[in-house]
């Protein structure tokens, strides 16, 4: 029979200690891939595909999957109730995604006074050379560094990164936010102090702490790009 | 071709109208041809401060709605041949004028006058947009208190979005003893927050109110502190470099900067 003679090597299933790895060939047509995936999964592999919950990593190599295509693969794998896709792994991304990543990794340098009623929002880290006045807001998906007085609101890790920090030459904010956490300012700031400080989420205390900038390299070693 | 300067503040009652009247008067004293424009439609005051209320026949809205020609609505000052006022309407509201119409009127006035001084209403809405529309430059007035400085900051942010020179700052109603005791912001603090150039400091002086009630701007009085301050502001507008000391007898902001720069 033609079906039986067809070479079946586009989908490779490997077992690892953490679950299954599905290697999808990146040169064959997508139709072939889908067909073979269906075949392989409906084949009786004994308890492997019917037993307890197994997590699956799908590796697509140099093939770019559209959302629709990866949706189809999810659907096929999802038919096996004990398989749970942990993630897709791929060597390729679109130019748009690459640009997005680049933006996230960049340091946006801005020189201005952020005044009452103004919102300055950037992707990536923000280096503000200037003050944030009361009533002004700065936001970054990454870290925030203010070379000036921070007297308004600063929100770092604005799309959820709890590792992000906020540093300022003069730290007198009305409010600090990191990811989803909010910290109101004390009702009074002492006359002196609050110079060159850094705010971060402390995991132990599950709140925003402020400390001298010199200890930050210990708390967030990943800030280092050297 | 003259220039148009809008006097604004955000917060109400800080002294925009008083400043407009006195800068206009001081510029006229220096022999410049000046037109004051009151854009506070519905709450006009400038005519009262100038003592010209009883001479109003037409107003800004009449001009916009073409019930009269622009020159018909202008009122000549009692004291100066070269000083005029375009009054606001009292019975209409701010939406009866559009920024484009304002621009047209201001640019027409700039043909005939050296300076067009525009008194802006409080707030950041339509009235503000109208007042700013035709202006080439702006002056922000603030009082030495937090809420007024906060609103000035907001206004400066909005002015910076306009195609205009960076705004200049006037701190009005400064009371020396309060700043010293720390109960009020001092001028240095205000300048450091707002980060724009200071063009004048006016003390709180009851003679300003007395003069206003008489319909005679304080700038006409020969030697009160407030009148000297206003005349100095006018000289700075004219491009003279008049030293700035926060309060005349004190070593203020300006001298501090000099010290920092190592000057005497
Ligand atoms: N330097 C001063 N010393 C004392 N009183 C002053 C001074 N400047 C202004 N005033 C008083 O403050 C009050 C408000 O001034 P003014 O009407 O000029 O403010 P404004 O900003 O134009 O107000 P509005 O927002 O209502 O238009 C007036 O009674 C005025 O006489
Ligand atoms: Mg007024």
From TrEMBL, chain A:
Which parts pass through the membrane? Answer: none
Q: Boundaries of each Septum site-determining protein MinC N-terminal domain copy?
A: 11-88
Query: By its UniProt entry, which PANTHER family does this protein fall under?
Result: SEPTUM SITE-DETERMINING PROTEIN MINC
Q: Quote the subunit structure annotation.
A: Interacts with MinD and FtsZ.
UniProt name for this protein:
Probable septum site-determining protein MinC
Which family, according to the similarity comment?
Belongs to the MinC family.
Domain Septum formation inhibitor MinC C-terminal residues, every copy: 110-210
Question: Which GO biological process entries does UniProt record here?
Answer: cell morphogenesis; division septum assembly; regulation of cell septum assembly
Per the entry, what this protein does is:
Cell division inhibitor that blocks the formation of polar Z ring septums. Rapidly oscillates between the poles of the cell to destabilize FtsZ filaments that have formed before they mature into polar Z rings. Prevents FtsZ polymerization.
Native source species: Fictibacillus solisalsi
Q: Supply the InterPro entries for this chain.
A: CAP/MinC_C, MinC, MinC_C_sf, MinC_N_1, Septum_form_inhib_MinC_C
Pfam families referenced in this protein's UniProt entry, alphabetically: MinC_C, MinC_N_1
What are the record keywords, sorted? Cell cycle, Cell division, Septation
Automatic annotation (TrEMBL), chain B:
Q: Which one GO biological process term can you cite for this protein?
A: division septum assembly
Q: Which GO terms describe its cellular component?
A: cytoplasmic side of plasma membrane; cytosol
Q: What is one Pfam family matched by this protein?
A: AAA_31
Domain AAA: residue ranges: 3-157
Q: What is a GO molecular function of this protein? A: ATP hydrolysis activity
> Which keywords are on file for this protein?
ATP-binding, Cell cycle, Cell division, Nucleotide-binding, Septation
The record's similarity note reads: Belongs to the ParA family. MinD subfamily.
Looking up NCBIfam families in the UniProt record yields: minD_bact (TIGR01968)
What is this protein's function? ATPase required for the correct placement of the division site. Cell division inhibitors MinC and MinD act in concert to form an inhibitor capable of blocking formation of the polar Z ring septums. Rapidly oscillates between the poles of the cell to destabilize FtsZ filaments that have formed before they mature into polar Z rings.
Task: Write down the PANTHER family for this protein, in alphabetical order.
Answer: SEPTUM SITE-DETERMINING PROTEIN MIND HOMOLOG, CHLOROPLASTIC, SEPTUM SITE-DETERMINING PROTEIN MIND HOMOLOG, CHLOROPLASTIC-RELATED
- This chain belongs to the protein called Septum site-determining protein MinD
């Amino acid at each position: 029979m033609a079906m039986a003679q067809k070479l079946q090597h586009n989908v490779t299933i490997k077992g690892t200690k953490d679950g299954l790895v599905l290697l999808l060939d990146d040169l064959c047509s997508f139709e072939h891939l889908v067909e073979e995936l269906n075949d392989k999964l409906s084949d009786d592999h004994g308890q492997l595909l019917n037993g307890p919950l197994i997590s699956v990593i799908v590796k697509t190599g140099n093939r770019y999957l559209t959302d629709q295509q990866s949706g189809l693969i999810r659907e096929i794998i999802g038919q096996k109730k004990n398989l749970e896709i942990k993630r897709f792994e791929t060597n390729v991304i679109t130019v748009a995604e690459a640009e997005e990543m680049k933006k996230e990794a960049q340091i946006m340098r801005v020189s201005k006074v952020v005044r009452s009623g103004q919102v300055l929002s950037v992707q990536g880290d923000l280096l503000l050379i200037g003050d944030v006045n009361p009533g002004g807001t700065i936001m970054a998906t990454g870290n925030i560094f203010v070379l000036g007085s921070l007297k308004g609101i600063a929100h770092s890790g604005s799309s959820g990164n709890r590792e992000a920090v906020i540093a300022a030459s003069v730290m007198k904010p009305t409010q600090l936010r990191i990811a989803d956490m909010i910290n109101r300012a004390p009702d009074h700031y002492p006359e002196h102090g609050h110079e060159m400080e850094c705010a971060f989420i402390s995991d132990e205390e599950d709140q925003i702490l402020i400390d001298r900038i010199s200890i930050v390299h210990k708390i967030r070693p990943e800030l280092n790009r050297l | 071709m003259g220039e148009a300067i809008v006097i604004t503040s955000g917060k109400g009652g800080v002294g925009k109208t008083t400043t407009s009247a006195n800068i206009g008067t001081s510029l006229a004293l220096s022999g410049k041809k000046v037109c004051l424009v009151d854009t506070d439609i519905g709450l006009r005051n400038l005519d009262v401060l100038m003592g010209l209320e009883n001479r109003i026949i037409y107003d800004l809205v009449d001009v916009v709605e073409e019930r009269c020609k622009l020159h018909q609505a202008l009122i000549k000052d009692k004291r100066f041949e070269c000083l005029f006022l375009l009054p606001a309407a009292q019975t209409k509201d701010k939406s009866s004028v559009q920024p484009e119409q304002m621009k047209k009127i201001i640019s027409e006035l700039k043909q005939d006058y050296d300076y067009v001084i525009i008194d802006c209403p409080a707030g950041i809405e339509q009235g503000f947009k109208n007042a700013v529309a035709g202006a080439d430059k702006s002056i922000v007035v603030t009082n030495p208190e937090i809420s007024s400085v906060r609103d000035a900051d907001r206004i400066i942010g909005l002015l910076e979005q306009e195609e205009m020179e960076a705004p200049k700052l006037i701190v009005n109603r400064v009371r020396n003893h309060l700043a010293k005791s720390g109960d009020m912001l001092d001028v240095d603090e205000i300048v450091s927050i707002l980060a724009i150039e200071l063009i004048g400091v006016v003390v709180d002086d009851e003679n300003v109110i007395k003069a206003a009630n008489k319909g005679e701007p304080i700038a006409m009085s020969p030697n009160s502190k407030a009148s000297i301050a206003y005349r100095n502001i006018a000289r700075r507008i004219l491009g003279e470099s008049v030293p700035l000391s926060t309060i005349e007898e004190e070593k203020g902001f300006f001298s501090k900067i000099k010290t920092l720069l190592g000057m005497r």
